[in-house]
Design goal:
The chain contains two helices and four strands. Strand 3 and strand 4 form a beta hairpin. By secondary structure, it is mainly beta. The chain has one domain. The chain has a four-stranded antiparallel sheet. The longest helix is centred in the middle third of the chain and has 6 residues.
Length: 85
């Protein structure tokens, strides 16, 4: 089990409206955060259809584990973003 030190450690610091940049081998993609939500583990499964929807073209969804209690993570931070110019 991994207990931190990953690229998404600070995901909970993202706010609606923040600019996000994703670097790829072909360049940098820009997104604007449209929502930031924290779901309890059991709740994320109930919202999976919306969180993982493929109906929105170009949408970016970032998810990390949050609320480490010393044994397990209790929740997930979910940031949803749309392409930005």
């Amino acid at each position: 089990m991994h207990t931190g030190g990953g690229v998404f450690d600070d995901l909970a610091r993202v706010h609606k409206g923040d600019l996000l940049r994703v670097r790829t081998t072909t360049g940098t993609l820009r997104y604007r955060a449209s929502s930031v939500r924290v779901y309890r583990k059991a709740s994320l499964a109930q919202h999976a259809e919306r969180v993982f929807s493929q109906a929105v073209p170009g949408r970016l969804v970032l998810i990390n584990c949050a609320d480490w209690n010393g044994a397990v993570y209790l929740s997930n931070t979910v940031v949803t973003a749309a392409p930005s110019a």
